[in-house]
Amino acid sequence: MLEPQDEVSEREVQQGLRALLVDASFATAIGALNSGVVLLALALHVGVSTVQIGILAAIPLFTQILQAPAVSLVERLRTRRRISVISVFLARLALPIYAVVPFIPDRNVAAASLMAAALLHYGLNAVGACSWNSWMRDLVPEEELGRFFARRTLFGTAVSAVATIVGAYALQQAGTDRAFGNSIFCGLYLFGFACGLVSTVALARVPEPRMPPGSDDVPIRRLLTGPLRDRNFRQMLRYLASWQFAVNLATPFFTVYFVRELGFGMGFVLIFSFISQIANLAVIRGWGRLSDHFSNKSVLSVATPLFIFSIVAMAVKRRSKGTPDRRRRGTPFSDNMMLV
To answer: From CA 66, how far away is CA 54, in angstroms rounded?
Structure first.
């Protein structure tokens, strides 16, 4: 079961690509309804501290280091579909844990359960992503690679936009009553788990070409450090490191900032995620042409500072008239947002 194939016919490839679109649709629904803003909303709902929110926000990044040993696992077992399917299935078992967190009366136990579930979810997803990337590279024909992943992103973004609207309405209702809010969060995560099962079944139906023979005596260290010999790759790593540090230092706390400092509801905050999805849909087709015309580096040199400027603009946002005053000017949190 889930074994790689020596030969994958054109018909099997096309069936696999259709299954990947189904997988993308349901997987992005999980992301919209169970991660990001919704996960932070659950954290605020159960009363975790700002420090714990920071730890929770760091888990998705911290667990990416598991991709390093996952490379060794893929090289040793050479069954990428099996690794991916088992990893994402086990990762999605965290969703029922999220679902019971609102009903845990002790705040510390609830926070610990939340972070343990996040470690399970994001950690195993990182392992699955490593094998998935290699698998897709061998499965999708090179001449269709760009078109397929653009279409997959389009499908996923459209589903995510709809799911975000549903999530925004649900979070708005969750703020009206705590007991009702518990049920809302439970329902969101159980629905996400159901979507996860459909996504996993679809992924299991995608064929896997057998990996080409590899050298058994190549140590994992050499596999990981080999790309570092390339000067351009090192420059890209420096850019990504500074970018990820700056963005991920600030963005996890915007939800907290909007809710605690500016007094917005969680449903309203989630609308920003919907706007983000619409923006993705608007530019996804034009991005390729823009990049081909000006080069990726030129586009990034303009987009990166504009994105950082947007973060600064949100940090200095003043309360508009009529907004409930839930903060005092000059609170430590708002001052720290300015520093970030």
So the answer is: 20
Among 190-204, 212-226, 252-266, the range of highest mean pLDDT = 190-204
Query: What are 44-83's pLDDT values in tens digits?
Result: 889 888 888 888 888 988 898 898 889 888 988 899 999 9
Strands (E), 194-264: none
Sequence-distant contacts of 7-14: CB under 8 A, at least 24 apart? 7/209, 8/139, 8/207, 8/208, 8/209, 12/207, 13/139, 13/140, 13/141, 13/207
In 3D space, the residue among 32, 53, 65 whose CA is nearest the CA of residue 114 turns out to be 53
Closest among 21, 28, 35 to 121, alpha carbons compared? 35
Nearest in space to 132 (alpha carbons), one of 74, 196, 187? 74
Instruction: Give the closest residue to 30 by CA, choosing from 123, 126, 103, 98.
Output: 98
CA 18, 19, 21, 26 torsion: positive or negative?
positive
Phi, psi angles (nearest 5°) of residue 330: 80, 20
Which 3 state secondary structure label does DSSP give 300? helix
> Cβ(200)–Cβ(86) under 8 Å?
no
SS (H, E, C) 100-133: HHHHCCCHHHHHHHHHHHHHHHHHHHHHHHHHHH
User: In the chain, what percentage of residues exceed pLDDT 70?
Assistant: 87
What residues have CB less than 8 Å from 262, skipping those under 6 apart?
Answer: 317, 319, 323, 326, 327
CB 220 within 8 A of CB 130: no
Are the beta carbons of 21 and 159 closer than 8 angstroms? no
Please give the model's pTM, rounded to 2 decimal places: 0.76
Per 3-state DSSP, the chain is made up of helix, strand and coil in percentages (nearest 5) of: 80, 0, 20
Chain mean pLDDT for the chain: 82
Q: Which domains does the chain have, with CATH numbers?
A: 10-219 (1.20.1250.20)
